[in-house]
Write a structure and sequence with these properties.
This protein is of the alpha+beta class and 264 residues long. The chain has helices spanning 25-35, 74-78, 119-129, 173-185, 191-197, 232-262; strands spanning 2-8, 48-49, 58-66, 85-92, 105-113, 131-134, 146-156, 159-166, 217-223, 229-230. Strands 1, 2, 3, 4, 5, 6, 7, 8, 9 and 10 form a ten-stranded mixed sheet that branches. A hairpin with a 2-residue loop joins strand 7 and strand 8 (159-166). The chain is globular and about 55 Å long.
């Protein structure tokens, strides 16, 4: 059994988990394994993934595990993958290892654009979400909604980096939590709205919280009792890929700024 760390740009994909008729990260991984002669059936033997990410959400440390041949290094895996999906590290695991069930915790990071926000107000909002709560008002799930969340807030230039860590996340929890934090950051609501969302009573109608946009969200870590070893060549090419993606985004941002400054 071997576990692999997978980084990907979520923009071209309809989420991680495979779906009919749309491109997903998982389908892309399976296509690569099929091209390498590793996969003959529906999915690899004893396959599992750390979790699902929504359409447009990216990852640094998505983790998949399955019975893999010795020669399947991250670099070999990447030979049949598009540049938007990169395997960059691997670890040997026990035969009964399960990438979903054996994760001690998962960490998501959201980059909230808030250049002129009073940070102390936002920090109070983020702190209110921390601890054990029933997050039933922040997910479409009907079970598994009671979770213990740890949070942190860091200023990075015009962005607030909001980190969420838990042993598991109901669907859309992070993006809906960020929506509440964004409302506070923009002065549209106060911490009382977050406290209302964490209350036992259901939020109805216009009280509901819509999920924040997916693009600024990244699955940044998944913790296991494993020792992952980066593949030097695969890691180098991963850095090159995301350096190019960053340059493309920076260039588009510069063009948009020029148009914004010129149209009066």
């Amino acid at each position: 059994m071997r576990a692999y760390r997978v980084a990907y740009d979520g923009q071209p994909y309809h989420g991680f988990q495979r779906q009919p008729d749309v491109a997903t990260v998982e389908d892309t991984l399976f296509d690569a394994l099929r091209a390498l002669g590793v996969l003959e059936g529906d999915k690899p033997t004893q396959y599992a993934a750390a979790g699902r990410t929504d359409a447009g959400v990216s990852a640094v440390a998505q983790t998949v595990a399955f019975e893999a041949p010795e020669w399947l290094s991250p670099a070999a895996f990447n030979s049949e993958l598009p540049s938007s999906v990169r395997v960059w590290a691997s670890a040997d695991a026990l035969p009964d290892f399960h990438a979903t069930h054996h994760a001690a915790w998962r960490e998501y990071t959201y980059f909230l654009h808030a250049p002129e926000t009073e940070e102390s107000r936002v920090r109070r909002a983020v702190d209110t979400l921390a601890g054990e709560h029933d997050f039933h008002n922040l997910t479409p799930d009907s079970a598994g909604t009671r979770r213990t969340l740890s949070t942190s807030l860091t200023r990075e230039g015009p962005f607030l980096r909001v980190r969420f860590r838990s042993d598991g996340f109901p669907r859309q929890l992070v993006r809906r939590a960020v929506s509440l934090v964004g409302e506070v950051a923009r002065g549209e609501s106060d911490v009382g709205r977050i406290e209302r969302a964490l209350a036992p009573e259901p939020m109805l109608g216009g009280e509901g919280v819509a999920p924040a946009p997916p693009a600024p969200l990244v699955l940044t870590n998944v913790s296991y009792d494993l020792s992952f070893t980066p593949d030097e060549e695969a890691a180098r090419r991963t850095r090159e890929t995301f350096r190019r993606i960053r340059t493309e985004h920076d260039t588009r941002a510069r063009v948009a700024s020029r148009i914004l400054d010129s149209v009066r």
